[in-house]
């Protein structure tokens, strides 16, 4: 589990300055989406620089870079924008949303696997954590998104939405990054 004390303190400090000007909010949002997209893709081996990622998100192709790298950036941004609505409405995570995000991330990259759980076993190089066997993924995902009977809330909601990309890999393509952290 994560200690979010420092994050809570920073949010409280930001809240002291609310309401923020709409232009400031839009600028912060654009910067966050750009940074998140760049770093997420870079971790997975995408060679676009931060500036190239910004240009790709503006719809311009970069010479010497693959179309896949462009689609990875565009699709990641689109998945972020898609997930903002349920997050803003504090809706619990459900399987349909996970699969929709997965489809968005793999759009124009891997149509055969988009929106589907992986059917092969995977390992994460250099990690002690072992993702579940492929046959276990649907059941494990179900237990993570089925609402708790007492609260009606799903195990993954609120603050945990940004951490969907961390661990158990319900997909085959290492670049697709839509999964749930079981730790």
Automatic annotation (TrEMBL):
Source organism, top-level taxon: Bacteria
Site entry (Important for autoinhibition of adenylyltransferase activity), positions: 44
Q: Which residues cross the membrane?
A: none
Annotated protein name in UniProt = Fic/DOC family protein
What organism is this sequence from? Azomonas agilis
């Amino acid at each position: 589990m994560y200690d979010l004390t420092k994050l809570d303190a920073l949010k409280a400090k930001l809240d002291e300055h609310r309401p923020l000007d709409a232009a400031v909010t839009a600028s912060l949002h654009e910067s966050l989406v750009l940074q998140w997209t760049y770093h997420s893709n870079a971790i997975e081996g995408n060679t676009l620089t931060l500036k190239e990622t910004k240009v790709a998100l503006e719809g311009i192709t970069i010479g010497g870079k693959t179309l896949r790298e462009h689609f990875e950036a565009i699709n990641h941004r689109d998945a972020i924008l898609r997930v903002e609505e349920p997050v803003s409405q504090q809706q619990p995570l459900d399987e349909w949303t996970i699969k929709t995000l997965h489809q968005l991330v793999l759009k124009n990259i891997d149509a055969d696997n988009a929106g589907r759980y992986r059917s092969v076993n995977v390992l994460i190089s250099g990690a002690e954590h072992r993702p579940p066997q492929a046959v276990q993924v649907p059941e494990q995902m179900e237990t993570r998104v089925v609402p708790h009977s007492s609260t009606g809330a799903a195990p993954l909601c609120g603050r945990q939405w940004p951490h969907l990309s961390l661990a158990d890999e319900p997909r085959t393509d290492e670049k697709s990054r839509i999964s749930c952290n079981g730790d």
